[in-house]
Amino acid sequence: MTNRFLLFVACLCCISLVQAQSTAPTCDDLVWSAQVLAENPDIRESCQGVYQRGDDLFAKVTIQVTRVSGNRLGFRPQHLDGSLGKPRSITVPSTWRARLDGQEYRARDLMPGQRLNVYVPEDRFALAMENDKLTWDEELQLFEIENATVEKPE
Q1: Where are the domains of the chain?
Q2: What is the pLDDT of residues 91-128, one digit of tens each?
Q3: What CA–CA distance (Å, rounded) separates 51 from 68?
Q4: Of all residues in the chain, what percent carry a pLDDT higher than 70?
Q5: Buried b vs exposed e over 115-147: b needs ≥16 C-beta within 10 Å?
Q6: For the segment 133-153, what is each residue's pLDDT rounded down to a tens digit?
Q7: Do the beta carbons of residue 80 and residue 33 sit within 8 Å?
Q8: How far apart are CA 56 and CA 59, in angstroms?
Q9: CB 142 within 8 A of CB 129
Q10: Torsion of CA 119, 125, 126, 131, to 10 degrees
Q11: Per the count of CB atoms within 10 A, which of 50, 120, 129, 131 is most buried?
Q12: Chain segment 69-83, per-residue pLDDT in tens
């Protein structure tokens, strides 16, 4: 009787795991706000996966730094096909930090060509940086982005 009970519990666990995996949100499930689409019209081509924190959904996106001037950061989003999107620039707060290879960098310390993983919520233009030890249960540093511009090609 004990073996049957354990087998039953194991089956229930497997069924729950399969159901959880089949209901996990994907990039196709994201409903982008008008603000996000206005600032990132190619966000759908850049979404590498979806992370959920509470009721909030975040798209993981890789960006390539193109230039830096103080706290102004120029970048291009990397599309899933490997191409790069249109150049954009944002001003980040002085407290903003990027984590690369276990080290933190201020915006002004970044170099063109570096790639960063960022998380963009579907409902507003903001960024959360990838952290080597990021867990979605910890406090998430989400920076609201203001004064974003699409740069003119050089």
Answers
A1: 27-150
A2: 888 888 887 777 888 889 999 999 988 888 888 766 66
A3: 28
A4: 66
A5: ebbbbbbbeebbbbbeeeebeeeeebebeebee
A6: 444 444 555 545 544 444 544
A7: no
A8: 10
A9: no
A10: 10
A11: 120
A12: 998 889 999 999 999
- Which secondary-structure segment (H or E) carries 48? none
Token pair in block for residue 9: 């519990």
Q: Distance between CA atoms of 81 and 19, rounded to whole angstroms?
A: 30
Hey, which residues does 117 pair with through a beta bridge?
62
Structure tokens at 136: 């979605």
3-state secondary structure 60-103: EEEEEEEEEECCEEEEEEECCCCCECCCEEEECCCCCCEEECCE
pTM, whole model, 2 decimals?
0.71
DSSP, res 40: -
Token pair listed for 79: 């599309």
Residue whose tokens read 């740069």: 151
Sequence-ordered alpha helix ranges (H) in 23-142: 34-39, 43-46
Average pLDDT over all residues of the chain: 75
Q: CA 121, 37, 124, 99 torsion: positive or negative? A: positive
